[in-house]
From TrEMBL:
It comes from Solicola gregarius. The keyword Protease does not apply. The chain crosses the membrane at residues 7-29, 98-120, 132-163, 175-194, 234-255, 282-301. It is found in: Cell membrane. This is ABC transporter permease. The keyword Cell membrane applies.
Amino acid sequence: MRTVVRNVAEVVTTLVLASFLIFLAMYLAPGDKAALLAGGPENLTPQTLQAINEQYHFDDPMIVQYFYWLGNAVQGDFGRSYVYGQDVSSLLTSRFDVTVFLVLYTAVLVIAIGLVLGVVSALRRRKAADSAILTVTTFLGGIPPFVAAVALIAVFAVGLAWFPTTGAGDGIADRFYHLTLPAIALAVGSIAGMTRVTRQSMVSQSESPHVDVARTRGLPRAYIVRQHILRNSAAPIITMSGLIIAGTIAGTVLVEEAFGLSGIGKLLIDAIDQRDLPVTQAVLLLLVLAYIITTRIADVLQRVADPRLRGSES
């Protein structure tokens, strides 16, 4: 129970600190916010300025403005977009599904391919397959998602015309088709990390005493790999999966821009470019929340996979 309370307290504290830093950055951003809301300095009459200040509390101290914003944000109200004139919550909701689909698609690719390559590399250690996998994944691991996106567009979308260059598609099948290249662009660099962690964890477990005992008892190799090596390697693999998914959430910003996807990442880029501060604040806070939730879920799953971690809780 104490662990649950401590975890909740840590999450709330992190979110509050993150929200304050985000708000502070937007507060210190150059430019006249009242003029932006009025549609330009030429439209900022004394009456308009007074109405804007009363509605948005621009005349209040920064800390007072922050608590007004935080109180509304807790209720799901992030204000209205300076550019679109819509509720920010509605804008986020309309873009949310594209980003979630892309993140999940990428996570499946990374975990599935990384696990397979890591297992093969560990079982074929110091052989040609192991060397080839390590060489290829090391090369791919150094490619940033945006560079991978440009290369994939040039080859498979423009050159071979196998995939579309923009859009998220309609319907499940069409969405898979449209988001295949973006998902691969996000997955390329992360597959290397998943492969290496899987390989290292399995190699470490294969050299442990309980595996030696299983071998001396004459147990089938497949059984030993499945029950003694891979199963005991689950905790670090789960941790790495959580970190990769959390990093993928942030990586969607550049990839969505490259592929012209109407997701949360593209919305953030547009909001920063157009100085749409309420949207920028909301998206940044949402990304922080998604990162925290993802890493916490991975932490819980890691404790489920490794009973020794549960026993060490105080």
